[in-house]
Design a protein that fits this description.
single chain; Rossmann fold; 2 domains; alpha/beta; 41% helix
């Protein structure tokens, strides 16, 4: 059977824009729902479990930045794809939104066809990252070989503990995405882990010591967690 169509939540208080986006997405086979306030958007995210959120920055009740932060800090939505809609005058907020973990953004006014193209490209990118058959990741001169359980930099193996390997794998699997400490603990240490989230900070420091190229590439997001820059630092 073909896979069920992806469900996209549009959080936009301008009805005309929301309806336009809805029409074009549904024409391309997506299912959509609309929320016109930030509070309603958060409620639908919890109840409807969409596959992606198209999120306007300027919303009544709760703004888009706060929604993005709440999405990323809740373990069950931490990896939910978020595409922001912004106005050109909101450039500084756009940067903050990306730092908080939005996956992409589109500036108003926009072409609906271009928006659909960006949505499809984001889904493709995330599906490739989550490919269960994947055997390796690369990041500049760094190569992680999952089958051999080894990490090489310029062909030289860097010894890692099991937890360091798992933590690095999570970062390489989700470049550009904010991973909260709780999400990393659950993924690497397991749901039955009862230690402190400071454990993640300690292991991040160890990774940076072992891989100098990751020193600037692993970015600390205040009060949230970490993300790996999707732009590989130049030597």
């Amino acid at each position: 059977m073909p896979p069920a169509p992806k469900k996209i939540l549009i959080v936009e208080d301008e009805t005309d824009i929301a309806q336009l986006v809805k029409v074009y997405l549904e024409k391309d086979g997506f299912r959509t729902t609309i929320a016109t306030t930030g509070a309603e958007g958060l409620k639908q995210i919890k109840s409807d479990r969409p596959d992606m959120v198209i999120l306007d920055l300027m919303l009544p009740e709760i703004d888009g930045l706060e929604i993005c932060k709440k999405i990323r800090t809740a373990p069950d939505t931490a990896l939910l794809p978020v595409l922001m809609l912004t106005a050109k005058a909101e450039e500084s907020d756009t940067i903050i939104g990306l730092e908080l973990g939005a996956d992409d953004y589109v500036t108003k006014p926009f072409s609906p066809k271009m928006l659909v193209t960006r949505v499809k490209a984001l889904f493709r990118r995330l599906e490739q990252a989550d490919d269960p058959k994947r055997t390796s990741y690369t990041y500049g001169p760094l190569l992680m070989d999952l089958s051999r359980h080894e990490v090489l930099v310029d062909g030289e193996e860097i010894p890692l503990t099991a937890k360091e390997f798992g933590l690095l794998e999570q970062l390489l699997q989700h470049p550009g995405r904010v991973l909260t400490r709780d999400v990393l603990l659950n993924a690497v240490w397991g749901y039955d882990y009862y230690g402190t989230t400071r454990t993640v900070d300690v292991h991040i420091r160890r990774l940076k010591l072992k891989f100098p190229l990751l020193d600037d590439a692993i970015i600390s997001v205040k009060s949230l967690g970490y993300k790996l820059s999707d732009q590989v630092p130049q030597k």
